[in-house]
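Hi support team,

I've been running sequence recovery on a batch of backbones for a student project. Most finish fine, but this one hangs at about 90% for roughly twenty minutes before it completes. I'm not sure whether the input is malformed or the queue is just slow. I've pasted the structure tokens below so you can try to reproduce it. Let me know if you need the job ID as well.

Thanks,
M.K.
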């Protein structure tokens, strides 16, 4: 791809093509691309075959092979993931009438608040779809608890905000996401995790950190929960961003 764009970006290419017969133009461009590929790696220069070869057909086969490699790791997880999303959106309830999943989140927040000691911050860690549950809970279902620190790892909160599917965007009884609800929101995502998305500029006060994992597509989505560096960063950020904060229950 880089070789092709380098060639077509040459300012002299149009005049060079105009000086050649139409039937020679394709071969001329192929030669230029081949030479550019050789500069990258001599073996790459053999990729482009003589003009008699149907390069379009070859390209389609290459795309099919490449996309097959991308699809295979997700064949087992995507149907489940999409099913979880649809099930949640259909059964989350609405402000004043939470569904069973939101009720479990509310119960968890209340239990955590009751179990702590005075002055201890309430810290929430979610992964993947869990971020959407917490976002809806704190904006649409008034848990009566202020979350001092929330880390959403490998999540899609920013993506859901852009889609406009949170109750905050669709229900007039929901309230905006503010610092009164969540003291600090840290979004731990990875540019190599295709199931995670950034949130800065989409969620007020959100801060992103990109953990550039180098494993497989599926492994990268779970890497946060197995990465000592992630937990060390989480601990440091909790210490900094909850200093002096006091957890409290609402009326």
């Amino acid at each position: 791809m880089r070789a092709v764009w380098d060639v077509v970006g040459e300012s002299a290419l149009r005049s060079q093509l105009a000086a050649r017969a139409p039937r020679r133009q394709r071969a001329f461009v192929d030669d230029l691309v081949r030479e550019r590929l050789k500069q990258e790696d001599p073996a790459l220069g053999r990729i482009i075959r003589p003009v008699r070869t149907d390069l379009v057909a070859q390209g389609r086969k290459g795309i099919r092979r490449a996309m097959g490699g991308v699809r295979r790791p997700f064949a087992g997880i995507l149907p489940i993931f999409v099913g979880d999303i649809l099930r949640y959106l259909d059964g989350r309830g609405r402000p004043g009438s939470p569904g069973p999943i939101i009720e479990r989140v509310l119960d968890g927040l209340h239990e955590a608040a009751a179990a702590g000691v005075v002055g201890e911050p309430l810290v929430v860690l979610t992964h993947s779809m869990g971020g959407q549950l917490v976002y809806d809970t704190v904006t649409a279902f008034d848990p009566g608890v202020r979350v001092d620190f929330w880390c959403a790892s490998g999540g899609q909160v920013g993506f859901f905000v852009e889609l406009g599917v949170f109750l905050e965007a669709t229900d007039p009884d929901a309230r905006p996401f503010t610092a009164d609800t969540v003291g600090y929101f840290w979004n731990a995502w990875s540019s190599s995790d295709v199931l995670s998305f950034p949130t800065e500029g989409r969620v007020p006060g959100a801060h992103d950190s990109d953990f550039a994992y180098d494993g497989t597509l599926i492994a990268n989505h779970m890497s946060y929960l197995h990465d000592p560096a992630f937990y060390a960063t989480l601990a440091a950020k909790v210490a900094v961003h909850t200093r002096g904060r006091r957890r409290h229950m609402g009326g």
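--
Follow-up from support: It reproduced on our side and the slowdown came from queue contention, not your input. The radius of gyration is 26 Å. No action needed from you.
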